[in-house]
Write a structure and sequence with these properties.
With 123 residues, the chain is mainly alpha-helical. 76% of the residues lie in helices and 0% in strands. The chain is elongated and about 50 Å long.
Amino acid sequence: MTEGKKVYDLEERTFLFAQSVRVFVRKLEKNPWNREDIKQLVRSSGSVAANYIEANDNLGEKDFLMRIKIAKKECKESILWIRLVDIEDFLIEKERQELFAEATELKNILGAIYKNRVSKNNL
């Protein structure tokens, strides 16, 4: 991520998460059991960013809520793949933990956004 500084622009933060995942997976061994997990991790991390951006250009409140919900779901999926990838080099375990923490924070932020909007609009 960004050397100890939190990014508060959520579009930028979700982009940086997806970008960090791509940097991380380049360091992983490409063995048969890791290949699919890596592909899924790259897809789900990119989907977090893409759905959040789409939420900001929504067609209405229901579209916004659906995109936020999908982005949160993709965070949860990213967490799974981060946990499943096989790491041969224990020097990058710290990076895995940082990505896990960021995905968890993003999931919680997106969940709070969803919950606040639903309660605000009495949906």
